[in-house]
Specification:
Blueprint: H1 10-30, H2 62-77, H3 86-100, H4 108-123, H5 131-144, H6 157-161, H7 169-180, H8 187-206, H9 220-234, H10 247-261, H11 268-283, H12 289-304, H13 311-316, E1 318-319, E2 323-324, H14 325-341
Antiparallel strand pairs: 1-2
Helix pairs in contact: 1-8, 1-12, 1-14, 2-3, 2-14, 3-5, 4-5, 7-8, 8-12, 9-10, 10-11, 10-12, 11-12
Length: 347
Amino acid sequence: MTSTQTGLSPAQRQRAVGSVVAAATGDALGAPYEFQSPVVDSEDIDMIGGGVLGWEPGEWTDDTSMAIVVLEASLAASDHHDLRIETAQDHIAREWYSWSLGTPDIGTLTAQVVRIAADHARADGHYAPRAADFRAAAALVFEELPASAGNGSLMRVHASVLPYLLSPEDDAVEGIDAVCRLTHVHPDTTEACMLWGLAVRHAILTGELDVRVGLHRLSPERRTLWTERIEEAEVSEPAMFRRNGWVVGAFQAAWAAITEAGPIPTGKFAQRDTLVAALDAAARAGYDTDTVTCITGALMGAALGPKAVPPEWRRMLFGWPGYEVDELVGLVERVIEPMVRDAGEGS
């Protein structure tokens, strides 16, 4: 992997951490409001726990758990943590399957893929599915349900892009796509993941929010469609996108929440207020609130870093596989370590 930049700067490293921490924060913040109607303005949004699935305050859901598996898989892949390697994808498949056996929350489409992949594996004499089983299952589900384009891969795309911060854009796109296609193959889903993943990458590298940075990679027809979708989000409230279990609805609701929060200000307290405002708007959207708020946090945290997350929220974070915020931070730091080492800052 090559890049004209020799290593991540301290600010970029912090923003990489911020993407994962703020995504987990959004996930836990939105969890108690999941499956419910939009939250009225008179009701406060806070890290309260509860909801239909009875989450503890600060507990993240499947969104962050699946992202953690992606990050851990990258560590086992190679020196540069390339998720395109089959052994890395086999790791993801195996660990997602193991996690799925005990989770109270998993997306409908993802659950179908896991079940079919496990059936394929057992038919071949394997105790757990491999990446090939997942890809075959994803293709079969798409064939049976061609209109189904859930948001279950968008919620983890920030993890997929982290190993490729200093790689050519082509590598980043291939890494995003490889992880996405383990469960989701609908064009709306693969394109949404590419656009949001490249936006996260751009935010980490520059501190700027720009969800249009990947549009040039689409065909003219699809570029026009996604431009219209983005523009619609920019003049709408997040709650307008009620079908936010659909990947496009989730994408639009999250971008609407970020747009509503306004441009990034200067000053750490103003930036914290902006991130909180974006997460608040996303959580108020209703329905698939954990995912909408998670992907909102992933992009906002990529631009602002972990300290933009209120410290009282950071301290509360925990979830599968027994992690708290310090473990999340350490995991990200290990993933990006080769990019630090290349700059002569690591061992």
